[in-house]
Amino acid sequence: MLAPLSVSTQKRTCPLLSVQPVRGLVDEKFQIAVTNLPPNQKVTLHSLHQSDDKDFWEAFGHYVSDEHGSVTGFKDECLGGTYDGTEPMGLLWSMRPIPGSRHGLRLRKRDIFRPMEVCISVYSGHLSQGFSQQTPLATSVTERWYVAPGVKRVNIREEEIRGTLFLPPGFGPYPGVLDLWGTGGGLVEYRSALLASHGFASMALEYTQDTDASYFEKAYQILNNHPMVKKDHLAVLGLSVGSAITLSMASYSKVIKPQCCVCISGSHLMPVEKSLSELFELMKSNEDKLCVNEDNQVIYRNLILSLPCQSAKVDVGRIKCPLLLVNGDDDQTFPVVESAEDMAMMMEKAGNRHLLEILMYPDTGHLIEPPYSPHFRATNYKLEWKNERIVMLWGGQTKPHAYAQEDAWKKILAFLWQHLASNLK
Fold it and tell me: Which residue range or ranges hold the Acyl-CoA thioester hydrolase/bile acid-CoA amino acid N-acetyltransferase domain (predicted)?
């Protein structure tokens, strides 16, 4: 009789770790559960991810098992680590480079057809370092995808336009989104892939500091005329300088007539009239207005506030479509608080204030990414108009910034569906 009892005891004391779903979209929550622990045991949940740039990122949280020997990450309280409190997704949004990594890193998905693989492990005790030297009690790997099954990727290379169109599964036609990132360089696809995973034909557009207004108009026309896109059911979504472009095009272009616009961390104080190079030349001539903090991180917002083109700011009173502003009040890169207030007054005076919706998130910085992305307060950045590498201070605090990303993404999707899906047959 002793042998069966010994086997049963062994099974009961072998910890089991479950992460569900094993595969899911990056904006989908997972649930972590550890069972078969001794009651009241201190354990550490740890996440580890190797980025497309081959850098390792990690997060960890301290827990104590309940009287049944279980820890459930989606309802139990984390007592410390890179996050605390009841935070089901803390192991993702609090990720940071492992000790000894290169400085100023930013986690960005470059190959959207490979998942973000995250190794979740549970360790005995409350650990804060040296995870690679310890043996975990249990480990599980979860795949986080930016692209849902069936989403198609189409290269756009016509009329000098360089972009990528992502089409949802099915026969269409779909409402369209022209997706504009900032001037960080390259073709950034992951947000467009995620938008397509939620039913939008989204075109990520690459542009440079020499790009003029006609380039964006041509891209808009290509998207609007695509057979899988519902004609005249388009939105423009911009981040940072992409928002400045969005506001200028929505106000002045005779070609770009979106049904709605979303501007993340943007400003109307950067008018894009003929080409971006003119704007960047203006910035270069005022580079003495750039501020640097005690950590040698560049604070960009004062430069934009002090530009001598304030009298030529974008006349947002001309905008004729619904406009959603998504901002963080600790944005150290763009003066989004001042811009939003001024835009509201301008649109009130013009009689189109009813078209404007402002989301202003406390303790949130400039880089408002899709949900559960790590927070980057300051990272390496190439300042295109100076051809110089700096450390840019984006701003924000980790937990409130994470909350903002999750809430903003839900409201952006709802806003797009509200204004693009009406009368969509």
Answer: 27-158
Report d(CA 33, CA 52) in Å as an integer. Answer: 28
Q: 207-219: string of b/e by CB count within 10 Å (b at 16+)? A: bebebebebbeeb
Contact 91, 32 (CB under 8 A): yes
Half-sphere exposure of 139 (CA within 13 A, CB side): 11
Using alpha carbons, list the distances in angstroms from residue 17 to 20, 36, 60, 71, 121: 10, 9, 15, 9, 8
C-alpha 330, offset from chain centre: 16
CATH 2.60.40.2240 segments of the chain: 16-145
- Choose the catalytic residue: 62, 226, 233, 366: 366
Q: Is 366 a catalytic residue?
A: yes
152-420 adopts what CATH topology? Rossmann fold (3.40.50)
Per residue in 3-49, pLDDT tens?
444 444 444 579 999 999 999 999 999 999 999 999 999 999 999 99
The one catalytic residue among 65, 140, 240, 267 = 240
CATH 2.40.160.20: does it fit domain 16-145?
A: no
Active-site annotation holder among 197, 331, 373, 401: 331
